[in-house]
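note to self — DONT lose this again. spent like an hour looking for the file last time. sequence + predicted structure for the chain T wanted, 68 res
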Amino acid sequence: MTKTYRFFYHYNKQHKKMSVHFRKQCLIVDDVVCNVPCESKWNKTQPNLVMRGFSTDVQIKNNKAYIL
């Protein structure tokens, strides 16, 4: 079985783009395509809402993140 890792993404207000966090990396992209199940998580501090789940890989193509 392939190992999965926690990911989460949210809107990055400072850059006015999306921020994807995967394997200790912060990727700033224009758009996110999530092909795996994810859930919402509310925080008391910013970012208030993040979408998170488990993934095997995140690929960047044309400044768009594909979560696989």
